[in-house]
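Tokens in:
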């Protein structure tokens, strides 16, 4: 586990919003170190009387600084049959579209019940429920015993009300409108009136009664012996001596022999026979204590033989004798360890569905949640491997477009993205070789329809210019929405954060190795602003880049002077809109960044819908759409 998976984040346990029919019991974010995938997994618990058949959650991916990464992800749990107090969801692995996700928040937005009624999210905040306080945290063994005598043998924690829920002493969670616990039927009014002072008084009275009863029994025994001795004293000395002998024989010699025999049986490990012998002595000496010791040793023997369930029952019968309570916990832990190891064995044999069921039954013990994710990932990997091999076969058989479709769907699995890029080049090679000003080519893949489940979409580029076999391209669509510089420290292309992003993250995630070989490193000029240079003279230095933004001069010479229509305006993709783009209402035409400094040190030139190139520009910290540009060299085509 530690080599293949890394746990990146654990969600706060037992998150609840007032009125919700479910609790988010647990959640985790894991990284598959083999594939690089980031996966979220959650466990939800039904706390409503109705049976749930479907539920929808919203997951909000966050980066390492806790800031949002795009839009919330909606995920549906379907075909459920979750009754009250049962969990669901832990079988589902939810892929995160952004591999930089390092934490998340979550909310349940809809629950559908088997009677087709629906609960929808309200405005309540999802917060952790308070955890009830265990009885043993404040009560000694006698007080806990008195508590259970008065409030039920299954009582284990104090009564707690939180939000619109209340926790019964038996541990069950109930809703505010329920007047009695749905599990043990204890009335809420009775639990609200628990008086620990009165409980202590009852305990003290009980202990007094028990002592008085013990003293009465001892006094009765002494009185019986006194009367017997008085009667003996009246009889003639010979008869008295005989009777005295038989009394001593019966009350001392014989019982002492029986006691010693019982002790010998106990020391020989014949506990059942020893218990029977001690019980037959009717309280002689410390026979009652010896019986408890025998029963304790029987329980210990069961525990050592691995008969943990029987050992638990035996220890619980001892009512706190010696360290029985601790032994019960040890047995329960041993049972969980054994079941955990059995589940691991199923996983190691490739019986993933059975292993998932076994890990789910452990209810989060040890690394059960991570193991479930591992099993689900293995199941997914088997299916992905099958599809990958299918794509390889299609490619080898010459079915290039079919193979490309499968590799594209597989996205980051193995080298699918690379193979998709190679096939994309192969499919579009004729179009790329014939590229001329105003034509379109396909190169690279980027998320555009804002549906990450279907993988990235092919990127369309419009040809701005061609010089021999060198072709100048700009993206047909506005692909993303980002600030020019996140730091706000300067407006030069040389130092801006957008330049770094385009030549690292964008370049590496958009193009395959074969496609990147076509992209030239060129000198990107630092141009003056012809209208505002006297106010803003900082332009930076020329740079060497593979991906860049247009300057005002490139815009004027390559677009504006040639009267290009659509290419000058640009259309925002659904993904860019989801990231903050605000295109016009006449066709999603958007405003986008150039690289030339604007009218002040915090501005950069932009293209504005309806007004063309703005020399004054936009604030570098504000978001505008991004249309990357690049040069490719057709001489480097190897296909």
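Residues out:
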């Amino acid at each position: 586990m530690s080599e293949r998976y890394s746990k990146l984040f654990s969600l706060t346990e037992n998150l609840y919003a007032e009125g919700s029919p479910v609790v988010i019991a647990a959640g985790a974010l894991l990284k598959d170190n083999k594939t690089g995938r980031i996966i979220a997994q959650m466990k939800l618990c039904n706390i409503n009387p109705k049976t749930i058949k479907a539920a929808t959650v919203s997951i909000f991916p966050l980066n390492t600084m806790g800031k949002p990464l795009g839009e919330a992800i909606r995920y549906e749990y379907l075909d459920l049959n979750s009754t009250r107090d049962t969990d669901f969801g832990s079988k589902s692995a939810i892929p995160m579209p952004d591999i930089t996700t390092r934490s998340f928040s979550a909310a349940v937005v809809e629950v559908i019940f088997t009677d087709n009624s629906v609960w929808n999210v309200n405005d309540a905040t999802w917060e952790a429920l308070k955890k009830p306080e265990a009885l043993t945290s404040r009560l000694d063994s006698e007080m806990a015993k008195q508590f259970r005598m008065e409030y039920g043998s299954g009582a284990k924690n104090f009564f707690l009300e939180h939000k619109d829920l209340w926790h019964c002493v038996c541990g069950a969670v109930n809703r505010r409108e329920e007047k009695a616990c749905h599990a043990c039927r204890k009335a809420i009014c009775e639990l609200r009136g628990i008086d620990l002072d009165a409980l202590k008084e009852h305990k003290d009275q009980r202990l007094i009664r028990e002592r008085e009863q013990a003293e009465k029994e001892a006094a009765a025994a002494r009185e019986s012996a006194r009367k017997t001795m008085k009667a003996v004293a009246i009889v003639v000395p010979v008869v008295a001596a005989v009777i005295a002998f038989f009394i001593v024989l019966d009350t001392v010699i014989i019982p002492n022999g029986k006691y010693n025999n019982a002790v010998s049986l106990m020391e020989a490990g014949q506990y059942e026979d020893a218990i029977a012998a001690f019980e037959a002595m009717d309280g002689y000496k410390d026979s009652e204590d010896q019986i408890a010791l025998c029963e304790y040793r029987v329980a210990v023997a069961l525990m050592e033989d691995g008969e943990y369930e029987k050992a638990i029952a035996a220890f619980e019968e001892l009512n706190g004798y010696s360290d029985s309570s601790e032994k019960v916990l040890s047995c329960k832990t041993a049972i969980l360890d054994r079941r955990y190891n059995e589940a691991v064995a199923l996983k190691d044999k490739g019986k993933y569905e059975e292993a998932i069921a076994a890990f789910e039954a452990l209810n989060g013990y040890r690394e059960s949640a991570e193991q479930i994710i591992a099993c689900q990932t293995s199941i997914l990997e088997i299916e992905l491997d099958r599809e990958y091999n299918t794509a390889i076969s299609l490619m080898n058989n010459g079915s290039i477009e079919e193979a490309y479709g499968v590799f594209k769907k597989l996205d980051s699995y193995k080298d699918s993205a690379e193979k998709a890029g190679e096939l994309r080049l192969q499919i579009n090679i004729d179009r790329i070789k014939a590229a001329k000003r105003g034509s379109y080519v396909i190169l690279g893949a980027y998320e555009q329809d804002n549906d990450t489940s279907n993988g990235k979409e092919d990127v369309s580029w419009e040809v701005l210019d061609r010089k021999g076999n060198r072709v100048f391209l700009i993206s047909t669509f506005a692909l993303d929405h980002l600030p020019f510089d996140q730091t706000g420290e300067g407006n030069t292309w040389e130092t801006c954060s957008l330049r770094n992003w385009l030549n690292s993250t964008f370049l590496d995630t958009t193009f395959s190795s074969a496609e990147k070989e076509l992209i030239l490193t060129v000198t990107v000029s630092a141009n003056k602003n012809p209208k505002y240079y006297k106010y803003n003279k900082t332009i930076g230095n020329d740079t060497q880049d593979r991906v860049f933004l247009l300057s005002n001069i490139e815009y004027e010479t390559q677009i504006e002077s040639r009267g290009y229509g659509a290419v000058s305006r640009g259309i925002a993709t659904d993904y860019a809109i989801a990231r903050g783009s605000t295109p016009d209402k006449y066709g999603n035409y958007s405003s986008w960044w150039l690289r030339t400094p604007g009218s002040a040190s915090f501005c950069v030139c932009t293209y504005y819908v309806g007004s063309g190139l703005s020399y004054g520009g936009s604030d570098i910290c504000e978001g505008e759409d991004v249309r990357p540009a690049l040069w490719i060299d057709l001489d480097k085509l190897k296909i």
